[in-house]
Write a structure and sequence with these properties.
By secondary structure, the protein is α/β, with parallel strands linked by helices. It is built from 7 helices and 8 strands. Helix content is 32%, strand content 18%. Strand 7, helix 6 and strand 8 form a beta-alpha-beta unit.
């Protein structure tokens, strides 16, 4: 599969970076986003092409930042859109025009986080990583733990030490190493980034 991602770009200053495992600008600490060659994508993607593919997130693979085929989360996505006429009426939208994406039936952890985690861990495997981690207070932790277990990756999950035990139960079930950190979520996230 051709790779249409050309690099990374700082959302603050616009500085370009090659594809590498970083997530912030080294000049201003701004977040980085993936840059695509959309002109090169165009001949490979059409509505008909996408509709012929199996339902799921990977039917849009040309628009995801992987060099090859996805290796984590093959069943992610494809969750239903639910018509929300009563909500539409309550907020003044024409009935039949408002739909809500139900990611509560996503695989494997019933969370919208499964989408981003499957892409991130597929990319981590492309970079040759054997260990992954995150800071979380719930859904992200469970998704990283579940998807890492499926992919054969070691996972470290940093959480606030006072987080309710029920929230991290699902994380531990998958064999992730849970690290409780004394401090706010921002402090936990900062430590995770430094590690």
């Amino acid at each position: 599969m051709p790779d249409f991602a050309t690099g990374l770009k700082c959302k603050v200053c616009g500085k370009l970076f090659p594809k590498q495992p970083i997530n912030f600008c080294t000049d201003d600490f701004g977040p980085l986003e993936v840059v695509y060659d959309y002109a090169a994508v165009r001949p490979h993607v059409s509505r008909a092409t996408i509709e012929r593919r199996p339902r799921g997130m990977w039917r849009y693979r040309e628009l995801l930042p992987l060099d090859g085929d996805p290796t984590v989360g093959p069943q992610v996505g494809g969750t239903p859109l639910i018509r929300a006429d009563r909500l539409a009426d309550a907020i003044g939208v024409t009935p039949g025009k408002l739909w809500v994406k139900n990611d509560a039936v996503n695989f494997p952890t019933l969370s919208f986080k499964d989408r981003v985690v499957s892409v991130a861990l597929s990319k981590a495997r492309e970079f040759g990583f054997k260990t992954v981690g995150c800071a979380s207070t719930g859904n992200l932790a469970n998704s990283v733990a579940a998807n890492a277990a499926q992919a054969g990756l070691e996972a470290y999950i940093f959480v606030p030490s006072d987080l309710e035990k029920a929230k991290i139960l699902g994380t531990g079930v998958y064999g992730a190493k849970v690290v409780g950190v004394t401090g706010t979520y921002d402090e936990v996230n900062r430590l995770c980034t430094q590690v």
